Write a sequence for this structure.
């Protein structure tokens, strides 16, 4: 077959036509909004920060704003040990971290039903007793004394304990026990975690992870009652007296 050649003029015409067609298509622009920027958070924490009730990553949607802000500070400043979070937040200002916290705190989204528990009835009963009553002999206050009677948290800085994965709860209590996780001094959660035996941890997290959410999942209003332990809920110092 003879060698076929396409005239240069036809090639240029085709390229010009293709360029004109592309230029005529509407361009897709991404809005420069805080919600758009924070879609990076949803890669781990789930759509709109909902996460799931299984696995390791916690839900951040609807948590108290000061709690979320302080956790971002802890990650950025090394009181919480997670290289990925620290790298993401390393160069962000306090003001921007406050904006991030406010965005997720303002989301009021439904929770999924809890995962079925594989724990035995006696273990669940032990967990419920520690959550609701504590153990005065070991200086263990009830979880409800700080996290609210409904365990959905207390504004402005105490998180809820329901709707979180069992593995995440175990990981956080373990991190406090080993010193990998810290809070503002005095660190009342370290005091609590270090007094829990392994069987206590298993019982508490199994009971918490199995509980359905109440109709109102929002954090309770701020309270003027003193906390059962001295607890640094902010960089300024103690949030309650023992």
């Amino acid at each position: 077959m003879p060698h076929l050649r396409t005239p240069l003029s036809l090639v240029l015409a085709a390229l010009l036509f293709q360029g004109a067609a592309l230029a005529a298509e509407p361009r897709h622009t991404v809005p420069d909004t805080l919600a758009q920027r924070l879609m990076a958070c949803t890669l781990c924490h789930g759509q709109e920060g909902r996460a799931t009730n299984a696995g390791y990553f916690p839900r951040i949607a609807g948590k108290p704003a000061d709690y979320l802000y302080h956790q971002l500070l802890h990650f950025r400043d090394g009181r919480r040990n997670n290289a990925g979070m620290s790298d993401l937040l390393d160069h962000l200002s306090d003001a921007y971290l406050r904006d991030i916290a406010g965005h997720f705190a303002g989301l009021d989204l439904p929770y999924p039903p809890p995962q079925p528990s594989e724990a035995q009835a006696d273990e669940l009963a032990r967990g419920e007793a520690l959550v609701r009553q504590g153990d005065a002999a070991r200086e263990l206050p009830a979880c409800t004394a700080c996290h609210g009677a409904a365990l959905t948290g207390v504004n402005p800085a105490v998180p809820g304990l329901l709707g979180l994965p069992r593995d995440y709860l175990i990981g956080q209590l373990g991190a406090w026990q080993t010193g990998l996780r810290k809070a503002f001094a005095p660190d009342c959660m370290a005091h609590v975690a270090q007094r829990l035996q392994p069987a206590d941890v298993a019982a508490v997290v199994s009971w918490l992870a199995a509980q359905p959410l109440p109709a109102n999942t929002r954090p309770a209003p701020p309270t003027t009652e003193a906390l059962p332990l001295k607890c640094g809920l902010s960089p300024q110092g103690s949030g309650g007296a023992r």
Summary: The two ends are 96 Å apart (CA to CA). The domain at 36-238 is CATH 1.10.760.10 (Cytochrome Bc1 Complex; Chain D, domain 2). The beta strands are 153-154, 158-159, 232-234, 237-238. Residues 162 and 213 are 7 Å apart (CA to CA).
